[in-house]
Design brief:
2 domains, homodimer, TIM Barrel, 17% strand, 15 helices, alpha/beta
């Protein structure tokens, strides 16, 4: 930890720009992190993602353990070589799956109130309650594979070791992510276990190289103020090289902001801060303004699948290309967008592809939406450096 | 017609290389034509197809009429501008849909014995017999839209005029494509109607510019020798600028060859010859050897969807990436393939993508399979120019 790893290069209010060094290169923050749950970002190749300017992707230890399994990836030379991505790679721990395959599944809440952490674009069914696919104890979590019913045990130690063996650069410690429907007592118990697991993760992670992979501790606490403050202080005080904010962040934009306002003051200034599974445009603005440095979300590709294009001037930043008004529209989605989709396709053509069910539509929309997010982050970085973030966000929000 | 349009540049036996001039550029033949039924080739962008070296795509008048409709494409500046493809475009007529939505649907045969002409990668259901969605009469064909039940009339005149209005370069006349289950009498009746429609198509196509779009007449006749010979002579003798071989070509490789051996001798030497809906690797070799110049097929992307990669040395030229033997295989699909997929991905990674149901697998397999086809055509052209086609094919077939 410290300047050698994360260098804050400018500040504007609580927001900051920084340079985060990893074994596979330096990340300019704030940065948006596309989700490559199973070592792939939907229909985009590593080359597509590099063209879009992305610096880092996030994979998922739970999913990669089940498919294809660590031994496959290791024998192919590690995660980078396996997926053809030479830049930094983050790996999430499986903590979200403890929620989504456990209490989330039993309560039938799926992803309600959650930022879709780590399941790619394949949402679990959330219709009605089901039996849990996770058994939790103090040692760790035992999952029943959704593929073949086999049992798999994850512990703080096994997750840290597996992530190291895969060659990930930024590694999330195993946490216990709770449901927004959990009581205060349940949320406190999960938080305390997450804290005990944090200590075990740190222990398992040593001895580590000073310039090797970095371990991130995860703050929990649901939407309870005292728990968030307590968890931020506890996790922030440990010897992690980065801190992530996880768990249920409430069901409204205002609530996400509230949870971050409780959490951020407890975090150490000098460490990079990641927000897990949050990435709607409005949430990104909130998170950056409150001093978050990294955030991942499947939103850009999930929107793409339904023909929703991100757009600076549309309501809620969304243009629904299937609308009949675009039937004869010769303009690109965004006039000034440099992405390959906007450079080559009219709205009328894109609408046609979605109306006809042509898979090319999904590809072209994903390309645009990811370019949009990267361009947004570049603008936010510039605004922070020039100390005009507040004005920039205000303009961005009102220009619609 | 004639040297100004199609120039034969070398010959080897019946095979030939040529240069086919169109309003949007010159096509080196023999050429494989990817299928863009609804103005899109599955998940590949126009830029991907240009990178793969393709010279010409084939769209479908029937499908584009229903979705998005000619008026949309025209108002966007024509088919080229609409789909972002600046090279030559071929357009099929809807003759195949007369079969597939008519007798094919009633007989429950779907695509049996057919080379999948013009329905992209979305096969119609062929389970059991259904009512016809086409009513045929001497004037033309009336289709019930599969989208909204509306009725649409296609005549030889309307198809030729619509293709001209869309700006297509190489235009198939409307034909009546028969089912392989049709009797001799039914096949003869359809052939005779196809011939009468050919005359009407030619009439509707005038006055045309000498360097404008070219109209292709279509040879029918099922798998009856005398009908094929008669149709080849009749269509070949008309003032079309190109000739296409359509209809049921039999259910085996040997049968396709037989039908072509009956057909080709009746065709004029100097006109380009297109084979509709045929494009398995073995069929391409047969067609080129017998003097065909162009051929289209959905096979490369249809195989890609199931994780089947074209491969020079594998049995039937197919490598099924889901096979367990590739689980840890660090090699590219083909060692010497210059496609982006082979340059960046191991077999183990590609297998993982298909096992995990990641849509990137389909994209990467489509890219490889289309590069494979284009490289195959380039090799065939070179072998013809060097007058060693027979040996080249023998080597290609036995090196497996």
């Amino acid at each position: 930890m410290g300047p050698a790893r994360f260098l804050i290069t400018s500040r504007d209010g609580l927001a900051r720009t920084g340079l985060l060094s990893t074994p596979h290169g330096v990340i300019e923050t704030p940065a948006f992190v596309p989700v490559a749950t199973r070592a792939a970002v939907q229909v985009l190749s590593a080359a597509d993602l590099q063209r879009a300017g992305f610096q880092v992707l996030i994979t998922n230890a739970y999913h990669l353990h089940l498919q294809p399994g660590e031994e496959v990836i290791r024998s192919l030379g590690g995660l980078h070589k396996f997926m053809g991505w030479s830049g930094p790679l983050m790996i999430d721990s499986g903590g979200f799956q403890i929620f989504s395959l456990g209490s989330g599944r039993m309560q039938g809440v799926g992803k309600v109130g959650k930022g879709n952490r780590g399941d790619g674009d394949r949402p679990l069914s959330n219709s009605g309650s089901k039996s849990s696919l996770v058994r939790l104890d103090e040692d760790g979590a035992e999952f029943v594979s959704y593929l073949d019913g086999t049992r798999h045990r994850f512990t703080p130690e096994s997750v840290a070791e597996s992530a190291l063996a895969l060659g990930a650069d930024l590694i999330m410690a195993l946490d216990e992510c709770t449901s927004p429907l959990d009581s205060y007592e349940q949320t406190r118990a999960a938080l305390e276990r997450t804290h005990r697991w944090a200590l075990r993760s740190l222990e398992a992670f040593r001895p580590r190289a000073p310039k090797g992979p970095a371990l991130f501790g995860i703050v929990q606490g649901g939407d309870y103020e005292d728990l968030r403050r307590e968890s931020a202080r506890f996790i922030g005080g440990l010897d992690f090289e980065g801190v992530a904010v996880g768990g249920a962040l409430g069901t409204s934009k205002a609530h996400i902001r509230q949870v971050l306002e409780w959490t951020v003051p407890g975090l150490p200034e000098g460490k990079p801060r990641h927000l897990l599974g949050i990435g709607w445009v409005e949430d990104v603005l909130t998170a950056v303004r409150l001093g978050l440095d990294l955030m991942d979300c499947v939103a850009p590709t999930r929107l793409a699948r339904t023909g929703t294009f991100l757009h600076k001037k549309e309501k809620r930043f969304r243009l629904r290309i299937r609308n009949r008004e675009f039937r004869l529209d010769p303009r690109p989605v965004e006039d000034d967008c440099p992405c390959p989709t906007c450079r080559t396709c009219s709205r009328a053509y894109l609408r046609h592809l979605f109306m006809a069910g042509e898979p090319l539509g999904f590809h072209l929309a994903s390309v645009h939406n990811l370019f949009f997010m990267e361009a947004l982050m570049a603008s936010l970085r510039e605004a922070i450096r020039e100390k005009r973030l507040g004005l920039w966000i205000e303009d961005f929000l009102t220009k619609k």
